[in-house]
Every structure is written in structure tokens, then in C-alpha cells.
Amino acid sequence: MNTLNQLEPQQRRSLLVLFFTGLLFWISIAILLPTLPDYLDTVGFKQQQVGLIIGAFAIGLLATRPIVGKLVDLKGRKLVLLVGTAVAAIAPLGYLAFTSMPLLMLVRAFHGISIAAFTTAYSALVVDLAPPKQRGEIIGLMSLTNPVGVGLGPAIGGYLQVLGMYSEIFWIAIGCGTISFIAATQLHNPRIERNLEQTEPDPSISIWKILTNPALGIPALVLLLVGFPFGAIHTFLPLYIKTLHIDFNPGLFYTIAALASFSSRSVIGTRSDLYGRGIFIAGSLCCYTAGLACLATAHSQTSFIFGAILEGLGSGTLMPMTVALVSDRSLPQQRGQVLAICITGLDLGIAIAAPVFGLVAKDLGYPGIFTIGTGMAASAIMVFIIWGNRSLRHSIGFSLGRDRDVYRRS
Length: 410
Prior knowledge:
Radius of gyration: 20 Å
Number of helices: 16
Distance between the termini: 24 Å
Structural class: mainly alpha
Largest sheet: none
Low-confidence stretches: none
Number of domains: 2
CATH class of the largest domain: Mainly Alpha
CATH topology of the largest domain: Growth Hormone, Chain: A
Helix content: over 70%
């Protein structure tokens, strides 16, 4: 909070309004996470149909992420933020209005646009408002909207679900999305200083150019490798616990992970401004890998508790630090596009995880899924340590907090 007090009044006000906007947005999204599948089941859809409807969310998310990234840079952060919050407010009406599977899939895909638009614009706007020397700290603080919102939303939704109050759940989602939209209208687009390296009037940058640039392609690859096990955790963990006949509520795993994520996000940012992003990204990947190893070998409640703590610490550190790293390495007028493409790596991994690991489960079982996930997370560590900076020497030093980021541009 001392950092916020040191900012100019306009910056401080914008960040506080943005935090409130983000918190309500994530509550609107998260309140449906545990309740929508059960609602669709009560309406009469079969398990496979429920899976297709829920999975359609990824279609809207993946299809529009590159588009909104370009809009963030060309039309401004605020406009795209308003689009994301508006979709979050409108989409739940579709779940109330329609009972046809094709129409619900369209609604769910439409709902996916909200995440693509909001997260890209939100991240870019936070970076714009943060002084470069305090960028990691402010990104860490502002990223707390996710674990808090994702913690509160399911708790509220789960309570109302027990009472059978599905309509109320959707109306709360609509209300939170609407208030989030109204709050976003009070924001302004900060002036973006053009970097001297950028002489062209059009700030557009191709996806291929982003992915083939080691400074940006490697973070995207790391997120892709982490996205697979992340998707497995959120898709197969409840079934895994059930097959082990362990008296452990899957919801407790996600709660513990959210608390650990909150803890890491609140303290890591400041230190990354002092010691660099590399040591914290490498450390987060190690935590994440260890957490997956706990799940792959789980045989008791303790294994899942330790797995949740390590997974929460890892993911809670990795995402804000990767956003900070990519922001450091991109030009201000191209930041939305770069963030969108890099984060798509995580989106793609999560989207593909369910069908790919579903096939693996038939032969290797759930422990096999998390064993493969552990291997993928471990490979992400190696990728970052070997190619995370301009040379092997720089990469190792950067990962240990002993060398600067050679690729840093802003």
C-alpha cells in the first residue's frame, strides 16, 4: 500500500477503480464454475453434452485472444476492457433464456470472449499505470483480483446451489458483470509514450514474429507446457480423488491453492523489481513441478494438501511474473498484442488438456496423467533455464537472479 500512496492521485485512483472492476469481473465468472455443470445436468443434458457446452468457452477465448490483443493497441485498453465486462454481464442471460444445446454452446463461446478481452486489456492497463521501477510490485498486487474473485465466486455459487437457487446465481453473475462495466467506464486510457525503436506508424506485429522472437516465444512456450497440467488439475482432480477413495473434498484443494496463490502474489512482485523476474519464474516452475509430483504419487490427504500449496505458490507467482517479463520485453504500443499471444499459450494448453489427457487416462489412469504433467512442467524449467535469455550463460544467471534481462526494452 505504501507504493500506491506514492503514486500520483490520478494513477492511484485508476488502479483502485481497476482493482474493483477486476474483482467483480472474476466473481461474475467464477460463480458459475461449480454451478453451471450441475445446472445443465438438472435441465436434462447428458454428461457428454455438458462437457461440449462447457468446453465451448475455449472456442471463444482462443479465437478472439489475438484479435483483442490488436484492438488493445489500436483502439485503446479501456474499450476492450468495456467489451470484456459487457460480455460478462450479458452472457449469463443466455443460460437463463435457452435450453437448446447449439444455442447454449454459442452462448458459452460468446462468454469466452469476456476472458480474452478483459485479461488482455486489464494486464496492459496495469502495466501502463505502473512506474517501470515498481512494475512487478503493482502487477503482483493488481493480480490479486483473480484468486480473491475465484475464491469468493464459487463459495457464493456453491451455497446458492445447495438451495437450488440457480436463477439467483445467474442474476448475481449478471449484476457483478454490470457493476464491473459501470466501474470500467470511469477509467481513462493513460498516454502511451512511443518508444524510439518504433518508427512505423502502425504498431501491428504478426503472430509469427512474436513467436519466433526468443524474448517472447520462450515465455509463450513455457506457459503452453504449464497449461497442460493446469488443465488436468481443473478437469481430472475430483475424479482422481474419488477413485482413490480418500476422504478429501476436492473443493478444499482449490481453496488451499487459492490461498497459497494469494500469498505469493502479495509479496513476490516487490522483490522481482529488485532481483529480476528470472529467479521467481524459475522458482515458480520448480514449485509447480513439485506440486504435480505430489499429485502423481498421492495416497493420502497430506499429499493433496502439499500438492495444493505448491501448485498455488507456483501458479500464483508464475502468471504475474510472466506478465511482468513480457511487458518488460515489449514496446508499449505493441504490448496488448504481445501479451495476448503469450497468454494464448496457457489458454491452448488448458483447452487441449482435457481431450488429450482423457485418452491417456484410459491406459495409464489418473496417476499417469499427473506423471506426464510433472514431466511437462519439468521441461518448462529446462526451457526457461536454457533459453530464457540471450545465451546459456545469461539464461542461467538470469534464472538465479544474478544477471540482468538482456531482452528488456521498457
